[in-house]
Amino acid sequence: MSLTLQRSDLLRSTHYVGGRWCEALGGARYDVEDPALARVFANAPDGDARDAAAALEAAHAALPAWRAVPARDRSRLLLRWNALVLEHREDLGRLISREQGKPLAEAIGEIAYAASYVEWFAGEAARITGDVIAAPVAGRQMLAVKEPVGVIAAISPWNFPAAMIARKIAPALAAGCTVVAKPAEDTPLTALALVALAEEAGVPPGVLNLVTASRANAASVVDVWLADARVRKLTFTGSTPVGRHLARGCADTLKKLSLELGGNAPFIVFDDADLDAAVDGLMAAKFRNAGQTCVCPNRVYVHDAVHDAFVRKLVARVAALKVAPATDPQAQIGPLINAKAVEKVDRHVQDALSKGATLATGGKRLPELGPNFYQPTVLTDVSNDMDFACEETFGPVVPVFRFADEDAVVAEANGTPYGLASYFYTRDVRRIARLASALESGLVGINEGAVASEAAPFGGIKASGYGREGSRHGLDEYMHFKYLCQGGLG
Question: What is the spatial distance between Cα 191 and Cα 283, in angstroms, rounded to a whole number?
Fold first, then answer.
């Protein structure tokens, strides 16, 4: 199956700044690898502080005119962008598969997911409202109106190169903000293609600007935006250590922040659960994108009474997964993003085995497919002294812990600095109410493994960050309230 684009002009290889496609000001470029082959197949501009500054100047200059555009006109523009994204979903999916590695069907599904945020915030743009406040004295009118925050800096991750940047850019444009953006260094091409379609939809020059950079230059780009007070909000999806650095960098200029950071999601199966449904939910939640998502279950707790039956069902499903590059139409699991990711997954597996875990299936690299492929894996007899308990694996590995007591498993589930997602399966309605309240996470899947939706607020608590993306609350993250008090009306 070919990953060649039908529309070759969607493969862009320059920055987009001020409505122009341009090289990095320093002239440097860096290589982009296909993770399935670990070979270079494209390159992108290696931007630095000069490019970041140019993008910011363009966004700042474009802000007054863009924020004055009527909300319904911004909505119509986003709908045009959404239509173009969906029209070219297969080409965009091919780009994702080439630079990120996920199977093509899954990559095309990500494009639909990305477009859902563009469509959603197109609708929300036309529904921006404020408050009329009952005045405490006669002759006074009191209003609270919403206004765009200003210039937004958006930094997106490699694991969902379309969905995550769309989830940031769409609400920013809907609110009337202008954007400077930097995609992950591993996956710049999908973001550039989305920006090309936004330009085609009619986004004015300077309203949306995108700068790419290598890992070595990423900090020099972002530091410009951190230090400049004209950037009024930063939105970031990525690791907790980087999120902490960005939060400290935003402190001097008191920028608004949305941080969607690391996770260590528990998945709890009680003795009264529908085991087939629980296995289905775990497969959906864990093995999407080869386990490389922030909401993937990282610790699977199964009640003693159903442990063996659950593991048998799970192992049969996991062992049957088709691992292959995206060029194979039957592929279900693609490569990990790079060698460092593979090394981390293998380190976690070897650590568990050295401490007494039992390998139920998988547990090996697949060099015959390529250097970045790893077998889908299930481990049992897992304990809290293993790396799985405290560190996010970000790969296709399921460590299964046993438990016997509800209170104890809730304490273990919450016993982590992170709080992004949690999942549990039970048919006891009283337990559902208890755990929905007790679990410390921003997202809770109750008898459901696929929880993300453009209509729902997505985000975490504790070390998993703050702020919400998606839903009506996601638009508020890009706006602030202004209180208007007019007297002398009596």
Answer: 28
Q: Which amino acid is at 277?
A: A
**Among candidates 81, 253, 272, which has minimal Cα distance to 166?**
81
Pull the structure tokens for residue 250. 């935003």
Distance set, CA 225 to CA 153, 416, 467 (Å): 7, 32, 19
User: Could you report the per-residue pLDDT of 342-365, keeping only the tens digit for each?
Assistant: 999 999 999 999 999 999 999 999
Catalytic residues: 260
| Threshold 0.85, pTM exceeds | yes
**Rounded Cα distance, 197 and 394, in Å:** 31
